[in-house]
Amino acid sequence: MSSIYVLEPPTNGRVLLQTTVGNIDIELWSKEAPKACYYDDTLFHRVVKDFIVQGGDPTGTGEGGDSVFGKPFGLELHSRLRFNRRGLVGMACLQPGQNGSQFFFTLAATPELEKHNTIFGQVVGNSLFNMLRLAECETDQQERPLNPQRIISARVIDNPYPDLAPREEQLELRRRRQHEQQLKQQEESEAAKSGFGYK
């Protein structure tokens, strides 16, 4: 009988990344890291051999990317989640403790990332081999791939947050409210000019 136990909590969400090297299936720990879960046509802009592959920056520079909240959010650490193997998905911090949209895949155990980065998912099934193919590239001295791979699209397969509207829907709702408010202000201004409803 094995004395090895699975200490990680169960996953409760799933995302499929369609990349230029094949699909990468990711299960999410959205309960343990709820804020860490717009990636279409973004590059894997950083590759560090036997360490990580990093992506999720819409600028492709490694210096951009907003969180879904429009501002950085802090670390989300969980005692049962450890950087103890390849295929884990973590948030890449632009500044210590400040998460945006960038993420990375581990290519090996990376204990040096403990207490510095949020783990929010794991690559599952045979898609792990596609993830590993991302690291099979030449890089320059700044760890940038000479021929970077890219995410073609990101699809939510199992949404752990059905009550939250996607980013585009939230932006559209905000635009609609602003437009309605502008129309109301314009109507009030015109009514004031005509004297209608005022003494």
Summary tags:
single chain; 199 residues; alpha+beta; Cyclophilin; 2 domains; 9-stranded antiparallel beta sheet; 2 helices; 18% helix; 27% strand
In short:
The protein has 2 helices and 9 strands, in the order ββββββββαβα. With 199 residues, it is of the alpha+beta class.
Outline the structure in words.
The protein is an alpha+beta fold and 199 residues long. It has 2 domains: 13-164, Cyclophilin, CATH 2.40.100.10; 165-199. The protein has 2 helices and 9 strands; from the N terminus they run ββββββββαβα. Strand 4 (46-48) and strand 5 (52-55) form a beta hairpin. It is elongated, with a radius of gyration of 21 Å. The N and C termini lie far apart (89 Å). Residues 32-37 have low confidence and may be disordered.
Strand content: 25-35%
| Radius of gyration using CA atoms only | 21 Å
Mean pLDDT: 83
Count of discrete alpha- or pi-helical segments spanning 4 or more residues: 2
- SSE-based structural type: alpha+beta
CATH fold-level assignment of the largest domain: Cyclophilin
Report the CATH architecture of the largest domain: Beta Barrel
Order of adjacent strands in the largest pleated sheet: 3-9-1-2-8-6-7-5-4
CATH superfamily of the largest domain: Cyclophilin-like
Largest sheet: 9 strands, antiparallel
CATH level-1 class of the largest domain: Mainly Beta
Number of domains: 2
Low-confidence stretches: 32-37
Keywords: Isomerase, Nucleus, Rotamase
EC number: 5.2.1.8
Main location: nucleus
Subcellular location: Nucleus
